[in-house]
Amino acid sequence: MFKNYFKTAFRNLKRNKTYAFINTLGLTVGIASCLLLFLVIRFESSFDNFHPKKNSIYRVGTEFHNQDGISYSENVSFPVAGGIRIDFPQIPEVAAIFNSGGQITVNNGNTQSNKFVEDNIYYAEPTFFSMFHFEWLNGTPTTSLKNPNNAVLTQATAEKYFGNWKDALGKTIVLNNKTPYTVTGILKNVPVNSDFPLKVVIPYTALANSRIKNNLTDWVSTFGGAGTFIVLPPGLSVQKFNADLRRFATKHKPAEYAKDSYILQPLTEIHYDDRFGTFSGHTFSHSLITALSLIGIFLIVIACVNFINLATAQAVNRSKEVGVRKVLGSNRKQLALQFLMETAIIVCAASGMAILIAEAVLPFLNKLLETQIHLNFIESPSLAVFVIITAIIVTLLSGSYPAVILSGFNPITALKSRISSEMAGGVSLRRGLVVLQFAIAHILIIGMILVVSQMNFFKNASLGFDKAAIINVPLINDSVNLTKLDFVRDRLKSNPDIQRVSFSYGSPSADNNWSSDFKYDHSAKTTDFSANLKWADPDYFKTFDLKFVAGRPYSASDTVREFVVNETLLKKLGVRNPQDAIGKEINFWDGSRVANIVGVVRDFNVNSLRRPLAPVVLSTWKRVYQTINIKIKPGTEKTVLPFIEKLWTTTYPDYVYDYHFLDETIENFYKQEDQLAQLYKIFAGIAIFISCLGLYGLVSFMAVQRTKEVGIRKVLGASVRNIIYLLSKEFTLLIILAFIISAPIAYYIMHEWLKNYAYQIPLSASIFLLAIGSSILIAWITVAHRAIQAALANPVTSLRSE
After folding, report:
1. First to last CA, the chain
2. What is the phi/psi pair of residue 617, to 5°?
3. Which helix (H) or strand (E) holds 438?
4. pLDDT tens digit string along 313-354?
């Protein structure tokens, strides 16, 4: 019986090649898109799931309370881990970790050492590795991290340094040309789906001999990269321990900082909660996972709608076949199975081609999203299960309704050729399905236009400073290197293509911001907000073209002598006239850094445009400078960059030369939004493609069904324009109706998305007009060929054939 079903199905599909091709192509693209989205979602949902204790591990974060509300940080003060061990002996495991960057020097016995700049150097306690499951190729946490001069490398890092990871054991690496460490352990490469991108691991006890040794007992400051993790024992709830942590903060922090507390964040939420951060610098919110899931479902639904529309439209042509089969003894169940079998053959063919397309597209997707996703059915049986389940769902969703309609024809009516398109599934149904298709497509198009527009706004918005043609060169700020700054400045300025040179802690807008509260104008209390600190020389203002609204730049100095502030800081202090702030005192850290305000600059963005303007304090402090800011003439990069590199290698021969263009660094702030914009472009285009594919099929079917009507109209004087209008007006009205339905839904969704940004484009009518205009234009282009072909047909031939 099934063999007969297959034979008949193949014959019918062969007879209706256009119908089969359109349906197969639509389903192929829909299933391929759904499969790719599933791979992305599965990858992003798998981060750090390989740790056996994942459901019991929590990160201790910081909860800040200030006049702007509550904010969060993944970082804590250094003494937190030790304090938890003492105050909460019921916590079985506590681990501190500190992420830092630096230069690693490796000597393999050659005359010249190899130097590497690493961003993922971690100081970790041995308990970190009993808490988290990272595989060891050699060594153990207790032995390899026992002494402060030990170091552990990952396999890839060891091979990069020494050629073979086994040769690395016992060898010495030097951090920042100062501290030697002996390699005592090798970690297997950390899985790509982990937010702990370990490369070099140093014992946490080594911090006692580092530059930050004086900060290890500081309960006030929160240091970037400083994290604390605990294992919560059974029976102790998160809510209960969060309350304990609030009392813990009150006990250890000075009274004026007691409002800030600590809070637990589950390991299973770290990758998705963008209120905090990750060591990998990458988060993927639950809302984004939901959005991608819905897009995948939408694309499958659109493809299925195509199938249903074309299948029910084709029903008229197959009515006699149904009538003959019923007269010869076929029952409705057998006929329904026959039509479902045809659907299953198309879906299976589409699924096979979808897998091939997904495999071909994956390298592009990995490059776009910076992921390492693989399509491997042997290693991941869940992929095969997903494809099979998707194929079954698509078969039932696409084939059930047409099978019920076709198998339900009355044999006598069918044999008399009295089955009309209205009886075969109903014109109203097909209209409704077309509206559904384009409503979904409109939502994706509006979302795509808005996300792209928001990204263009980010790229073109004024940040309050000049970011063009500025090169940032990281500087190792030890005492010897800092003595060479004047020489470097003079040599750089000797190049006529270099316009400005400045030394600073960081750029005006950077991801390594330093913030602190302070006392203003001899106040006894510190401010209830933190100011962003910009340590820079006086040339900083001209290099970045910062504008003054009052006062002057501070004078040159190696230490803090004078302050410059921005307008937002004065607003938070309640100072309306910038001139009134000149001469007022600012006191940091109980007198550690005290000076008067000598100038006020216009506001500029120190963070991405997701966040509002921040209060800023600028001053000189040569000891912390770690960036050279070089303003060059546009278009001179090819000559200036080699000049800077040569100067660096001769002045700092022991350090690796590295550089970044500031505008590219700022663009990286919006990497995830840019990736999202690209995904929206791709999948909105696919939605329109599938929808128009179905539209073309329906117009083709209408042209055939209305051949006689078109011929009569032409004989009676209808023009080509009239015929084209006849065949396209209904679809135009349906697309407009779809837009009316989708516009408020899209408005709500995108309005909620825009709330994530302090700076946002307006949801103007132009965005929606562009969406409906482009949809109608694409639809007209789609149906134009078939409509024109029908309109130009010879009416004599049409009437004779009828």
Report:
1. 37
2. -125, 130
3. helix 427-460
4. 665 555 556 555 555 556 667 767 777 887 888 889 899 999
